Request: fold
Amino acid sequence: MTAQKRIIDLSRKVEPAPGPEHQRLEIRYERHEDTAEYVAMRLECEVGDLPGGLGWANEYVTLGTHVGTHMDAPWHYHPVSEGKKARTIDEMPVEWFYGDGVVIDMRHKKPGELISTGDLEAALDRIDYELKPFDIVLVMTEADRLWGTPEYWSTFPGLGRESTLWLCNQGIKVMGTDSAGWDRPFKNMTEEFKRTGDASVLWGAHFAGIEKEYCQIEKLTNLDLLPPFGFKVACPPVKVKGASAGWVRPIAILGE
Reply:
């Protein structure tokens, strides 16, 4: 890596944290001393023949595909996308997951507020940037600062149907956020629905994937370390067969 190049990790650790039931995970650790007898049996030797009398370390993880920093596939939003069967995460084209990154700064938006098309356009005007197809758009809200607290799951602004479709219509295939969800928190969507009777506000940003095929990354971090543009993003998800999402460790590459 050259002196001018920097690589910034944009992902969260997969670790237990306070949150809703579907975000629970379990990690069972096997230490080197725990496996010594098994390793000796596999290698047909005595435990004393192993370095320090120790085996190998192992971990067993039970978690959902939407735990930690992950990428949603169109199959998560609906069984149909653009009039065809929605694709699962293992079916998405890998070329979508490397491209020019753009940070859209929404730190001025309050928790629960809608990030509108106008908000996106104004943010791009401020940095004098015009989106192009296959840019990877990262929405910065600073909600990642609440990671590890119950408030993380309900204290962030989010996009809606129109603003998500606007990004899709610019040719954006992958977009992401440093908050827990791409839409607004559930409580804000349901309150608006009860007040207005407008069902389009319910998970509208996700359901936009019925009309336009796209992927979104949730639970990013470190977006404040990035310039508005002029960097690359690499974010291929794990190919879980038939799954609605895959874990991802996105990185930003600066100075390339």
In short: The first strand starts at residue 6 and ends at 9. The longest helix spans residues 117-127. The helical segments are 36-43, 74-77, 117-127, 161-169, 186-196, 204-207. The domain at 70-254 is CATH 3.50.30.50 (Glucose Oxidase; domain 1).
